[in-house]
Amino acid sequence: xxxxxCSVNSLYEKYPYPSLPIRNENDLxxxxxxxxxxxxxxSAGLDPAxxxxxxxxxxxxxTGEKSCYFAYRGAKVTSIDLSCSSLAKGKKLAQDFNLxxxxxxxxxxxxxxxNRFDHIFCMGVLHHTNDPYGRFRVLSDMCKPGGTITIGLYxxxxxxxxxxxxxWIKLNAGEDIDRRMxxxxxxxxxxxxxxxxEQAYAADKYANPYESYHSVIxxxxxFDKNNISYIGSYPHTDIxxxxxxxxxxxxxxxxxxxxxxxxxKN
Length: 266
What we know:
Blueprint: H1 3-14, H2 25-43, E1 55-59, H3 65-72, E2 76-81, H4 84-96, E3 101-105, E4 117-123, H5 132-141, E5 143-154, H6 160-173, H7 177-189, H8 196-207, H9 216-225, E6 228-234, H10 241-254, E7 258-265
Parallel strand pairs: 1-2, 1-4, 2-3, 4-5
Antiparallel strand pairs: 5-7, 6-7
Helix pairs in contact: 2-3, 6-7, 7-8
């Protein structure tokens, strides 16, 4: 594990993410779809029914909510993550709903399989690594021809104001995760965190030791290098250089620092 992976993993071992409050079937299926999965699936031109029988890789699965959603929809799911704490929560969630998910602890770079996947999802992961494109290339090699790959990344423009806030936190609390979390409680929330999910959200957003920032055109170039055709994105954007730049400037105004983008392997 490289230095960046070690530091990032130390955060997720302490604060498994996202630790969503999944208490019942409605939370797993309807609420998760409405709040998260509809955006992810729509960017790839998919719907819940289309997942049945498909081979899916959830790369950087965290606490396993998406993996369990895919399994509930009838997919054969393989999930990988570095955090033991996150994987333990994912396995418990799968057990609670009697779902079959193949959880694995490893880095994307080190994942070995003969399988090729119909759909690959890597949400909010690559920007916490030392080589986002290198890991994307590994994932693209595991995608079947005709299959889809969907990634979620921090946007270079939309994340700008938040980057300034992270610098302010670092100046006041340094690199230590616990000091940062205490500072965030006092100075941003003005109170103690309400629950595990809120704590995990704050840790990921404000205390993460490393993140990088990316543009739509950059990812389109990744697609082109790996024989992948653009399908869609969330929020929607024009993929032309000028059009995507103007769209991302709007993301700056709306503080939309995260975007989802999907492509199909040719």
